[in-house]
Amino acid sequence: MSRPCPCTSKRTFDACCEPFLLGKRLPNTPEQLMRSRFTAYALRKAEYLVATTAEEKRGELDLDELKRYCASVTCISLKILSTEGGKADDDTGVVTFHASLQINGKRMLHRERSTFRREGGRWFYVDGETN
Question: Is 4 a domain residue?
């Protein structure tokens, strides 16, 4: 039996985000991609974060800096607050979530409204508004 998935979906890791992180499956919805990206942060899989970011935004990412950030944060839990779009016939979707994190020993709540886009049948993270 596999451990619980870091995305706190109440599913096991091998039945939830692991196939995405291993490249065995693609997320079918923006929410699945959001959950797998949270898991990638939790497991320090910075390459997955880059690969699942929209192409025009990848150039803004510094892989080494992303790796350092992943190493400095403890991902405690993820709560999906709402989803918009992202259905089988949609090319865009929005996921609003909050993530409970611990950074430098201090617990914080990160809230974001993330935008996703489907290209070539694959979902990508475009950007997010935080508050």
Answer: no
